[in-house]
Amino acid sequence: MRGLAVGLREELASNPVISGEALGASLEKLAERTTAATLRGALEALGAGLRRPLMAVAGAGSALWILSVLAVRWRRSPS
């Protein structure tokens, strides 16, 4: 870590304008990647936690839909 800090100081001292722009671009990319990774991890955790309840709701919804279709057919069938 100290070597990285020393290298950054030397680079900024040698050409502050170009080095500052490059450092800004690098920090921007790092922030984007960190945000993307954090969001991806949160979505995966959320998906894993909600997968069972959502599947149960989807299953119950499908069952209700099938029952309603069968009920409509039963009511419309000729006696």
Written account of the structure:
- The chain crosses the membrane at residues 54-74.
- Keywords: Membrane, Transmembrane, Transmembrane helix.
- The chain is built from 2 helices and no strands.
- It has 79 residues and is an all-alpha fold.
- The mean pLDDT is 79.
- The N and C termini lie far apart (84 Å).
- 94% of the residues lie in helices and 0% in strands.
- It has one domain (2-76).
- The chain has helices at residues 2-14, 16-76.
**Strand portion:** under 5%
Largest sheet: none
N to C succession of SSEs: HH
Gyration radius, to the nearest Å? 29 Å
Instruction: Please state the average pLDDT score.
Output: 79
Query: Could you tell me the number of beta strands?
Result: 0
For this structure, the quaternary state is: single chain
The number of distinct structural domains comes to 1
Which term fits the overall shape? rod-shaped
> Termini distance?
84 Å
Output the structural class: mainly alpha
Count of helix runs: 2
Fraction of helical residues: over 70%
Ranges with pLDDT <50 over ≥5 residues? none
